[in-house]
Design a protein that fits this description.
This protein is an alpha/beta fold. It folds into two domains: about 130 residues, Response regulator (Rossmann fold), CATH 3.40.50.2300; about 180 residues, 3-Layer(aba) Sandwich (Rossmann fold), CATH 3.40.50. The protein is about 35% helix and about 20% strand. The protein contains eleven helices and 14 strands. The protein has a seven-stranded parallel beta sheet with strand order 8-9-7-6-12-13-14, sandwiched between helices. A five-stranded parallel beta sheet has the order 2-1-3-4-5, sandwiched between helices. Helix 3 links the parallel strand 3 and strand 4. It is elongated, with a radius of gyration of 20 Å. About 0% of the residues have low confidence.
């Protein structure tokens, strides 16, 4: 078996040693080198030809974003960013994902021994997923900020709030969601989204969504009434579902346990939608590692919902959509660029 060759790029000797130690425990991963800055990394990439890079953002001589931009232009390869869980760290990491990074993990906390096992499992799984991605197909997309306008037509029903769109994503999802949302009209039925993100990233990401769509994107609060023309992003570190009350949908948020190791979990949202909306739902699974959302999509399909999964060719990782496809619960397998149009076509068939 050919091992996944990893090059670690970080200006902290302690972090380089820790990441080397963690990744070296995996039998299918080999750390071939560790560079203290981007200029050293540039030469080591030429010499060692790694399969995956882990890349720090803040480094001397050349910052990680500048290096990543040059790398994706000259020698595209899978990159996992090492990010700080701060507002600034979130914004910069989202920029890195837009440039072409596959995924990110938080900087390890040296003194948090009780969480090191979970952290180790997380970074090893993300390096493995990164090694399977085809980054040469990544094309940066223009997503200019839009000027919000009033709905083109007054199609919002007066008393019937039944139509609902639910969407889940993980690895590669931050960019995929923007691609889908930028084509949604201001008078679209409500969209509930679960994207696997830490709590510190939620506000920055929802602002990114809001800037590219005619709809209004926000992080909801528990008990909030769901309204047409709005996108609701599950807050990081909490579970989000939806309930039906007085002929309206309301957001349900709680601090319950992770599902499929995720919080928020796509399955939580999808199962909730199956119970309260069923056949009045369009359900979408985009790119993502693992299988979160597949069982929930199956419940929605059994309840009569229309279901869409992103196709393998346009997915960064065909884990979640692939798992739903294997369960036989995907009505449509659609390239990313065509998903918005498919959603809007199916919405018209709902009651």
């Amino acid at each position: 078996m050919n091992k996944i060759r990893v090059l670690i790029v970080d200006d902290s000797l302690l972090i380089r040693k820790l990441l080397t130690s963690i990744l070296s425990t995996a039998p299918d991963i080999e750390v071939v080198g560790a560079a203290e800055d981007a200029l050293v990394a540039r030469d080591m990439i030429k010499q060692l030809n790694p399969d995956v890079l882990t890349l720090d953002i803040e480094m001397p001589r050349m910052d990680g974003i500048t290096f990543l931009r040059n790398l994706m232009r000259l020698r595209p390869m899978p990159v996992v960013m090492i990010s700080t869980l701060t507002e600034h760290g979130a914004e910069v990491t989202l920029d890195a994902l837009a440039i072409g990074a596959v995924d990110f993990v938080p900087k390890p906390k040296i003194n948090a021994e009780n969480t090191l096992e979970d952290y180790s499992e997380d970074i090893i799984s993300k390096v493995r997923a990164a090694a399977k991605t085809n980054v040469t197909s990544f094309v940066p997309r223009e997503t200019p900020n839009v000027v919000k306008v009033a709905p083109i037509s007054n199609v919002k029903p007066k008393t019937n709030f039944t139509k609902l769109i639910v969407l889940g994503a993980s690895t590669g999802g931050t960019e995929a969601i923007k691609v889908v949302m930028k084509s949604m009209p201001a008078d679209c039925p409500p969209i509930l989204i679960t994207q696997h993100l830490p709590a510190a990233f939620s506000q920055s990401f929802v602002e990114h969504i809001d800037s590219v769509t005619q709809m209004s994107a926000s992080i909801p609060v528990h008990g909030q009434v769901v309204e047409w023309g709005n996108i609701y992003l599950a807050p990081g570190g909490l579970q989000m579902g939806v309930k039906r009350m007085n002929n309206q949908y309301v957001i349900h948020i709680d601090d319950s346990e992770p599902v499929n190791r995720h919080k928020p979990s796509v399955d939580v949202l999808f199962h909730a939608a199956a119970k309260c909306a069923g056949e009045n739902t369009v359900c979408v699974l985009l790119t993502g590692m693992g299988a979160d959302g597949a069982v929930g999509m199956q419940a929605l399909k059994e309840a009569g919902a229309k279901t869409i999964v992103q196709d393998e060719a346009s997915s960064v990782v065909w884990g979640m959509p692939g798992a739903a496809f294997k369960l036989g619960c995907a009505d449509y397998v659609v390239p990313l660029d065509d998903i918005a149009a498919k959603i809007l076509t199916l919405v018209k068939t709902l009651r």
